[in-house]
């Protein structure tokens, strides 16, 4: 044992250079195979044949080439490309400021946590909302809030009638007042009409309730309707947008709101352990996605409609149609199961990668892949018909989310 330079008694190896070299040897790690280029090309080809999720889109070589020019700041202090991205997206959405986030889940959770400071309180949302179904009861954990999940009466989206009957107000001490209404657009790929969002926002503002938007795929609404992002975001106090889904960036979301709100959210993000460092490469990749990938979305929607029409022509029941990039279908309507379709898809010479009832079309989907999938389903339908299958009346409308959950996880885990 020897003395370290600090003067403290620290055990030091008697053979320092040799042991350092040995640790160095242990640490060495090269996960890239010698065939990484071919491997990545294969991955890109597989993504083009994947209907599971648009989160699986992969960075193109062009995006990577642009991304490496990102600035080299530390985002907890000052990272120029990231600050520029936050300011840019704040400007196009008509908000005062923005905050780059690692994920959409963190963006929603911090967005809500920043509004909610003194329990008891409740948040009203759609019963299919991501914050209710896929965020692990995060608002209960992080904010001590209870969600009030509301099924829309029209089966498509919430209206002011749904919301006003669900918010908690008044002085009765038994009930936790509603402090936030959280909407999602798109929701399962469907567009929330602005004419029903605006009255909800006016109602919320009349009661001092905050409006949050989970706009993970709001880009699709702008691309499909031609409405500006500013107009789509105006009814909301806070908005979360994702870059890593339809836009195809590798990582990242953004939370938007007033300067005061984002200043608070920046502190909450650090508290959550989300203060990131050299994010310049990510911000630059997002800039590439905004510039080059947003214009691809109308084509994605055309392909999704082709997919829906093709399935209808085969006799498949559509559970939720292609308003943007998703189609939900019922495999039982042609006498088969999602598992059978997925397994047969995997056995094709060029495999198809499928989840459950949800089919997601994305910027890396090719038209040929839509044709291959339709051919596969048509083949199965024909086989079943020959074997005597007769289509029964559907009674499972509204259950597709559950089917999707089950199958989606089992297939993505096995890949
Ligand atoms: C509507 C919606 N909101 C939020 C998220 C969460 O995003 P992330 O997976 O980046 O946490 C998702 C993920 O797919 C989503 O679909």
Automatic annotation (TrEMBL):
Keyword line: Lyase, Pyridoxal phosphate
Stored Pfam families: Beta_elim_lyase
Record has Iron as a keyword: no
Modified residues (N6-(pyridoxal phosphate)lysine): 245
Cofactor names: pyridoxal 5'-phosphate
GO molecular function, one term: L-allo-threonine aldolase activity
Record InterPro entries: ArAA_b-elim_lyase/Thr_aldolase, Low_specificity_L-TA-like, PyrdxlP-dep_Trfase, PyrdxlP-dep_Trfase_major
Family of the protein in this entry: Belongs to the threonine aldolase family.
Name of protein: Aromatic amino acid beta-eliminating lyase/threonine aldolase domain-containing protein
Organism in which the protein naturally occurs: Tetrapyrgos nigripes
């Amino acid at each position: 044992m020897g003395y370290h330079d600090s003067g403290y008694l620290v055990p030091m190896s008697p053979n320092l250079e040799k042991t350092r070299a040995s640790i160095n040897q242990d640490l060495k790690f090269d996960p890239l195979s010698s065939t990484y280029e071919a491997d990545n090309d294969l991955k890109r080809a597989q993504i083009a044949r994947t209907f599971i999720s648009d989160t699986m889109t992969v960075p193109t070589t062009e995006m990577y080439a642009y991304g490496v020019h990102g600035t080299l700041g530390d985002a907890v202090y000052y990272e120029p490309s990231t600050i520029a991205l936050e300011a840019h997206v704040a400007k196009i959405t008509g908000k005062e400021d923005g905050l780059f986030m690692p994920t959409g889940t963190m963006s929603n959770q911090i967005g809500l946590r920043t509004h909610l400071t003194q329990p008891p309180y409740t948040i009203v949302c759609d019963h299919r909302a991501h914050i209710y179904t896929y965020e692990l009861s995060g608002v209960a954990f992080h904010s001590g809030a209870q969600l009030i999940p509301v099924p829309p009466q029209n089966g498509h989206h919430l209206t002011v009638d749904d919301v006003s009957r669900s918010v908690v107000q008044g002085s009765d001490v038994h009930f936790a007042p509603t402090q936030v209404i959280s909407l999602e657009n798109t929701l399962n790929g469907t567009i929330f009409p602005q004419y029903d969002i605006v009255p909800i926002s006016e109602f919320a503002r009349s009661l001092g309730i905050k409006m949050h938007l989970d706009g993970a795929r709001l880009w699709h609404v702008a691309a499909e309707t031609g409405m500006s992002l500013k107009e789509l975001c105006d009814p909301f106090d806070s908005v979360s947008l994702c870059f890593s889904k339809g836009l195809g960036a590798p990582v990242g979301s953004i939370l938007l709101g007033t300067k005061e709100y984002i200043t608070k959210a920046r502190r909450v993000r650090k508290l959550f352990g989300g203060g990131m460092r050299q994010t310049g490469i990510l911000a630059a990749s997002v800039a590439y996605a905004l510039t080059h990938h947003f214009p691809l979305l109308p084509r994605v929607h055309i392909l999704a409609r082709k997919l829906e029409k093709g399935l209808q022509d085969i006799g498949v029941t559509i559970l939720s149609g292609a308003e943007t990039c998703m189609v939900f279908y019922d495999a039982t309507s042609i006498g088969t199961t999602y598992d059978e379709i997925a397994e047969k898809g995997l056995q094709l010479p060029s495999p198809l990668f499928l989840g459950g009832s949800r089919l997601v079309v994305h910027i890396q989907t090719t038209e040929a892949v839509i044709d291959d999938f339709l051919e596969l389903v048509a083949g199965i339908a024909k086989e079943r018909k020959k074997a005597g299958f007769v289509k029964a009346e559907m009674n499972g409308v509204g259950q597709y989310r559950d089917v999707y959950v089950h199958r989606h996880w089992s297939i993505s885990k096995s890949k």
